[in-house]
Amino acid sequence: MRPVRLELEGFSTFRERVVLDFGGLDLVAFTGPTGAGKSSLIDAITFALYGSVARYDDARRVGPVIHQLANEARVRLDFESGGALYLATRVVRRRPSKGRDGGDLASTREARLERVEPDGATTVLAGDVKELNAAVEELLGLDFAQFTRTIVLPQGEFAAFLRDDPANRDKLLQRLLDLGVYERMGQLARARAKKAGHQIEVHEEQRRRLRPPSNEELAALVDRRDALQRFRAVAADGVVALAELDAGLDPLRERVTAIDRARARLASIEVPEAVDGLDRRLRAAAEERHRREGELAEARQARDRAQAELDELPDKAELARVQSMLESLAEARTAVEALTDEAARLRAEVARLAAESEEFEERVERADAALRSARLAADAAGWTAALRVGEPCPVCHREVETIPDHDATGELEEVEAQHRRITTEARQVAGDLTKAGERERVVTAEIERQRERIGSLERQRSELPGPESVEDVRRGLEAVDQVQGRHRAAVERSSGLEAELAEAARGEDELRRAESELRADLGALRDSVADLAPPPLGPGSLRAGYRSLETWSRERAAELAAERVELAEEGKRVAARRAALVEELTTAAAALDLDPDPAGLVAAVAEASTAAGARVDDAERRRTEDRQTGERIDELAADKVLDEAMGRHLRAGGFGSWLLAEALDAIVVKATVWLLELSNQQYSLVVGDKTFAIVDHNNANETRDVRTLSGGETFLASLALALALADSIAELAPVDAPRLDSMFLDEGFGTLDPGTLDVVAGAIEELASGGRMIGIVTHVADLAERMPVRFRVTKGPSTSTVELVEV
User: Fold this and answer.
1) What does the pLDDT look like over 312-337, one tens digit per residue?
2) Long-range pairs of 537-541 with CB within 8 A, sequence gap ≥ 24
3) Sheet holding 773-777, edge to edge
4) Which of 48, 497, 537, 577 has the smallest number of CB atoms closer than 10 Å to its CB?
5) Helix count (H) and strand count (E) of the chain?
């Protein structure tokens, strides 16, 4: 693992966003005053990868990493591993409540691991805390505790590997050196031995199932195969001889069969019953057809005369149209006359109502004036209660001489009643006038519509020829109906005669077809025995032809019966020779356990010979396979012995433990070289029973427990061991084991004297020159100044900042 870029915000002392770019750096120092946040930068690396900080008592706590003035801490680490670039991001957010111990509670809000692809895109490998922790441990090959003992050595943990429990140290070395590969090799060897044992059992069972034949059994199989092969030629010759005899019998059988079939055909020749009386029926049918044809000709002439007469008359549909049009004109003209009278009456009514309406308007005006006067009088009468004789009037201010004495209220009621009656009558007259006017307009519009209809009908009538009166049209229609009746009767008569003629023609045709079929049957009957040379058919009657052929068939059948007797005698002689040959082949086949049927003898011998050869081949194959299986069992047994031995040697506590001890010794040798140089040749590092000890060369080479070293001496021993471990992993580990491509040291440089400090600085520089990135946290100015790049950490009132200083 080699860091490339570190970004943090709200983490530890860094409230504001801080970015550290490690690209191209091999040796870097983190400097600054105590408490500024130098170690927090190293903590941020471990937190981004594992979600924990080694300096905290509980590695599971994440709340302390959040800045006191921030609600969340965000860390992102870009790092390289195995030639690929990865991005690890964690975001922790503070929760409002407090923990049981009074500390702040926090939870991880975001945890993600991404891989940067060659095209710059990213692939998400983990999306939560559990997935990220597992992915980082698998990718780096180290868990959190092992990471803080090899790559990041934080404050308080620098001597952890030196003082670690041997079991934990072995576990770390096994993972770093991938010594588990030997255990896996042992497991594989034991699995292979077990598999070989199973295969041996399978092959032995296979040998039991093979049951290879003995020499005697194989010899018997070979003898049968040879005997069948010899009989195969004999059987083939015998079958050929049988075929030749059958070939001689076949013509005899075929000729006998032909004679039997010919006699059967001859026996079927006889005169059909339908031939008798056929000529008489044909003559009668022809006479009936001629009579029907004459009657039909007369009926068709009558039909044509009626059709010609009908063609001279007007078209019935056109007459009907003219009739309908004339009736519509009469109806429209009658309607116009009635509507014209109605319109005149309505105009008189409208004039009368209009005059009456004007009269009522004047009466309404007079009633309105009388109503206004009566209402003024009634209002004035209301003042009479306030008048006093001899006092001034409140209206005209004159002296009141007398007080009026009349009923103004009664007069007003009478005037109002008269006003209502007049206005009601006026509205009634106005309504009647409106209705009469509207009816007049409707009647006038209907007169115009009827007149337009009359004009349209007259134009249509002018375009149609025909009578001018409805009566003339009716007489024309009656004449057409009479002629059509005669035409229909003639058509029906013709249709009936045509059906009768067709029936007579069908009867004659059927008789002629029957005659034709009988003549065809006679020809076919003669053709069926044409190979027997029948006499030719003459031009005579149908009955004479049948009688001649029937007489010949009886004579020819007697000749064929005599020939069949001679053929039967010849067949018996050939059959006797064939039976003797079949007996010979059947006896030989029975001796070889074969089906004696001659029809399938050749195939049976061939099949049995092939089967016997296959059994011989199978027997030889089983004997060969048995021998090969035995050889394979021997090979598997030898491999099983070898794999079992390897499996025993590579068990835990065997070769792996020995190799682990050798690796630890090699690391101790390198660590001793570093420690002698760092301690001015005073101390060496040894290991006994997997426990580290110090050899003090200034004290008679006394061996001491590492826990007796002072703080500065412990730092030197731990540093020597860390440098040796980093330097040895690349040499001892296999190719795919975790690589220590970086190391961060956060402790102890202030306890070193100038000489030792110079040696330590040289060692760090030498370690960085091997391609690793080395980062140190130090207060020592001389050591910091020797680093080519420094990150200076400065603490402000609310946040720390980082400045890159290059020499």
Assistant:
1) 766 666 767 777 777 777 777 788 88
2) 541/279
3) 152-153, 742-745, 773-777, 27-31, 789-795, 800-806
4) 577
5) 17, 15
